[in-house]
Design brief:
The chain has 189 residues and is mostly helical. 85% of the residues lie in helices and 0% in strands. Helix 2 packs across helix 6 and helix 4 crosses helix 6. The longest helix is centred in the middle third of the chain and has 37 residues. The two termini are 36 Å apart.
């Protein structure tokens, strides 16, 4: 039953909009990984691999430009004053030079980590990284990230679905137990 619902969501226009919104938010304002939505959609709709991957690349790259703008505007209006107030102007200038010298490679390398992309996008804006370099690095990095993810799903996805189908009840039970445990741990901290 859950599989039919997930498949219907993957086929729906709202599913694609939610995927695009998640990819956009990951690169700009919220630490939400689009991979968590993209992977099941790729598993259920392998014929839409190219379009779903392209949607993530475009939405994530656009979100990164917004994140860059947030960092750039926040720096111009408040950040510089705070950095000077804390006596970190020299350290920030070193960071800014590092981003300018290695920025392209830093942005691309970040695409292979699970850290939300918005952090590097905002940091690049704060450091006033060259916008064209940032944009090119973002598109390359985001494309590599989502294409590699799609290739992994294409290679191992059907075996994973067979495993889930075979142990569905056990996995559901473990998931519920894990959620209850996390809830208790959070409530008692």
């Amino acid at each position: 039953m859950w599989l039919r619902r997930a498949e219907a969501f993957s086929d729906s226009r709202s599913g694609v909009v939610v995927l695009a919104g998640t990819a956009f938010a990951d690169s700009s304002v919220l630490p939400v990984l689009p991979d968590l939505l993209l992977i099941p959609m790729l598993l259920l709709k392998p014929d839409r691999t190219f379009s779903l991957t392209a949607i993530c690349v475009v939405a994530s790259s656009t979100g990164a430009l917004v994140g860059y703008g947030i960092g750039h505007v926040a720096w111009a209006s408040l950040g510089e004053t705070l950095v000077k107030m804390y006596g970190q102007a020299d350290n920030f200038q070193r960071y800014q030079r590092l981003v300018e010298d290695w920025g392209l490679w830093i942005i691309i390398a970040k695409s292979f980590t699970p850290i939300p992309f918005k952090f590097i996008a905002i940091a690049a804006g704060v450091a006033s990284m060259n916008l064209l370099t940032f944009t090119v690095a973002t598109v390359i990095g985001r494309t590599l990230h989502f294409v590699i993810l799609a290739l992994l799903v294409a290679s191992w996805g059907q075996q994973f679905l067979q495993l889930v189908a075979k142990y569905e009840r056990w996995l559901l039970g473990l998931g519920i137990l894990g959620a209850i445990s996390l809830g208790i741990a959070y409530a008692t901290r």
